[in-house]
Amino acid sequence: MDLPFQPPKIYTVSALTAEIKSLLEEKFDFVWVEGEISNFAHPSSGHYYMTLKDENAQIRAVMFKMQAYYLKFIPEDGMKVIVRGRIGLYEPRGEYQIILDYLEPLGVGALAAAFEQVKKKLFLEGVFDEEKKRPIPFLPKRIAVITSPTGAAVRDFLRISYRRMPNIDVIIVPVRVQGDEAAADIVEAFDIVNRELNVDIIVLTRGGGSLEDLWPFNQEEVAYAIRRSTIPVVSAVGHEVDLTISDLAADLRASTPSGAAELVVQEKENLEKNIKSLSFRLEISLNSIIERIKDKAKNLSSRIRDPRRNLADIWLRLDEIYNRLLKTGKTCINDNLKYLKAINETLVLNSPSHTIAMLSQKLAFHNSSLTQALKGFLDKRGGSVRSIKDRLDSLNPLSILQRGYS
Length: 406
Prior knowledge:
- By secondary structure, the protein is α/β, with parallel strands linked by helices.
- It has helices at about 15-25, 65-70, 110-125, 150-165, 180-195, 220-230, 245-250, 255-265, 270-305, 305-350, 350-395, 395-400, and strands spanning about 30-40, 50-55, 60-65, 80-90, 95-105, 140-145, 170-175, 200-205, 235, 250-255.
- The chain has a five-stranded mixed barrel with strand order 1-2-3-5-4. A five-stranded parallel β-sheet has the order 7-6-8-9-10, sandwiched between helices.
- Helix 4 runs parallel beside helix 8 and helix 5 (about 180-195) runs parallel beside helix 6 (about 220-230).
């Protein structure tokens, strides 16, 4: 017998997505998942978005602002974590994801991871730099102690302080040292002390506790308040094994509240002993210096001569120098006069007027010689001309006729 035909159930996309969403959220109400964070994003909305992955698969995850606010650390890519959440499906895109309400680093607590993150951040900012740390006054008159007014820490600090220096002035600045509001209290206390109290040192302290109990002292705003302080800060939080961010940021770290009192408050009896010892040593040193000065004065007095003898020697020396200078001066003057005379004679011989006179004499001499020579030449030539004339006259026919040959 043939079964009646059953038409297939046809879903719309929205209906199918809604049914899958219902099944997923019912089946996986809360799940724990281990994985590695990647693609972490922290937009201004305050929500955390990330992908959880292992070797074979990955799934999207989101932690909304309300849950992220209580997270003590900020997730990072590559961090292996354990998360808790419920499976949700984002219907417009048909994508499912884990909606987280708990996230903790794998193998280390959330607070420990947060501590390392804060420490790294402040280290890179230079908050812990040694060169920024201020010296602690050796003998403070007034100390402000930021702590709980009812805890064991304040009692230990006061007991040790007054035992060591009964007249020390200690001002207690009460704050909460545990809980979510404690960090804000501590920051405000630092502002009040710096603004209103005239103290030499600030001591920030509390007794021991778990990492969560001490967490206010690991807040970065407390570290910033310590560095902003114009007054040197000593941090003494927890026991010797405890290390907080405030310890690293402070100018000096003490292992315990009692240890802080021993570091900043000098013991009166020891100071008095040291003062007596220093006074004794100073007296011995001064006496020794005075004796050395006396001995030196005696040696100098034996070497000092009568001033009148010194003056006589000086006058003799001056006379000797005067005579030497006088003799040297005369010699120098005579040498210079001889030199000037020689220069004058040279100038006279080489002067233009002297040269012209000499040339004039030579010219007159040569002119006279030339005149005599020319006269002799002319006389000689004149005689020759007359002789030739006479011969020519004798040979002239007219002259012959005149002599009788007519």
